[in-house]
């Protein structure tokens, strides 16, 4: 009897050392990967972009009706390079955040709401063209801008816990990147000034609010 009791105590201690309680839906640690698709409903340069991200973190289950919270880390990228429009957009980020995990009426389906801080860089470069009366296509100009720094963001979505080790998720993320200087240079054969090619150069402000949809999978341990 004493031996069985000792074995039971050791088993409980082992589970406790892993941070996993019998009523917890998953283990405390997780890692996974997401596929990202830029949103077309938010202003900015990411509507046609695609990419991926890798995430990891630590979950703290409250023991109350499957709710909890977690700390997360994520690195990811989005890009859109088009030979047709000569459009080159790149977005990279490293993210630290916190998320609330809330039950839904559907078993094993959780609602996720999070806030985060992002170390990001958004760079965009456009080449534009124009046609003259002789039917030839000429380069008309270039527009480029870069935004980088620490920016706040948020996310919300759903995560379905298949079992104690696997879950699938669908999130919507948005980051307020802010504004930066924008360089615009135009050389248009249709603009003439005393017979010379028209030239235009300007510097202004550029604003972007990147947003994207994530579909991913996580492994919990």
From TrEMBL:
Protein name (database record): Outer membrane protein beta-barrel domain-containing protein
Q: Which organism is it from?
A: Geothrix limicola
**Region forming the signal peptide:** 1-22
The family database entries (Pfam families) matched by this protein are listed as:
OMP_b-brl
Outer membrane protein beta-barrel domain location: 9-221
The record's keywords, sorted A to Z, are: Signal
